């Protein structure tokens, strides 16, 4: 009696199927990691955009002091995001300018401590920036 042997090509077929399963698993893993990287890069870009908007809002507030020494802040849209600026009188000619920008789901903010030198019209003839820090 002859020993039982698998049909010819059976081992090759099983090997190919196992190899395909392994390659499919590797491909799916790489695709998943790639998709996650794309999502993370979008989050980073939105954060960078919010950072830039907040920075621009502080600069805008400093410019507004030059035409309105009593500028107290406000909110506005900029480059697809939103920005809220508040100005706190620290006494004398010192002001704290706080800007908070939102872009997508990201929020960034800056605090700038400035000293204003007023002209006769009550506008800031000169703005000295004492500090400019990213806030939480």
How would you describe this structure to a colleague?
With 136 residues, the protein is an alpha+beta fold. It has one helix at residues 10-65; strands at residues 73-78, 81-91, 94-103, 106-118, 124-135. It has one domain: GSPII I/J protein-like (Pantoate--beta-alanine Ligase, Chain: A,domain 2, 2-Layer Sandwich), CATH 3.30.1300.30. The protein has a five-stranded antiparallel beta sheet. Strand 1 and strand 2 (81-91) form a beta hairpin.
Give a short synopsis of this structure.
It is built from one helix and five strands, in the order αβββββ. With 136 residues, it is α+β, with helices and mostly antiparallel strands. Strand 1 and strand 2 form a beta hairpin.
Please give the structural blueprint.
Blueprint: H1 10-65, E1 73-78, E2 81-91, E3 94-103, E4 106-118, E5 124-135
Antiparallel strand pairs: 1-2, 2-3, 3-4, 4-5
Task: For the structure shown, list the relevant keywords.
136 residues, 38% strand, single chain, alpha+beta, 5-stranded antiparallel sheet, Pantoate--beta-alanine Ligase, Chain: A,domain 2, 5 strands
Number of domains: 1
According to CATH, the homologous superfamily is: GSPII I/J protein-like
Query: Structural class, from secondary structure content?
Result: alpha+beta
> Averaging pLDDT over every residue, what do you get?
87
Strand order within the widest beta sheet: 1-2-3-4-5
Give the terminus-to-terminus CA distance.
Answer: 83 Å
Order of helices and strands: HEEEEE
Rg over CA atoms: 30 Å
Tally of DSSP β-strands: 5
Given as residue ranges, the uncertain stretches (5+ residues, pLDDT < 50) are: none
CATH topology: Pantoate--beta-alanine Ligase, Chain: A,domain 2
Quickly name the level 1 CATH class: Alpha Beta
């Amino acid at each position: 009696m002859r020993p039982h042997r698998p049909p010819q090509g059976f081992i090759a077929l099983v090997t190919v199927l196992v190899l395909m399963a392994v390659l499919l698993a590797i491909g799916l893993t790489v695709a998943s990691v790639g998709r996650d990287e794309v999502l993370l890069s979008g989050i980073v870009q939105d954060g960078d955009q919010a950072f830039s908007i907040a920075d621009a809002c502080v600069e805008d507030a400093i410019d507004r002091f030059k035409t309105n020494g009593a500028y107290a802040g406000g909110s506005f849209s900029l480059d697809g995001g939103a920005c809220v600026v508040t100005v706190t009188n620290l006494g004398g000619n010192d002001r704290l300018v706080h800007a908070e920008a939102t872009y997508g789901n990201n929020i960034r903010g800056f605090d700038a401590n400035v000293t204003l030198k007023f002209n006769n019209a009550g506008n800031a003839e000169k703005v000295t920036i004492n500090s400019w820090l990213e806030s939480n």
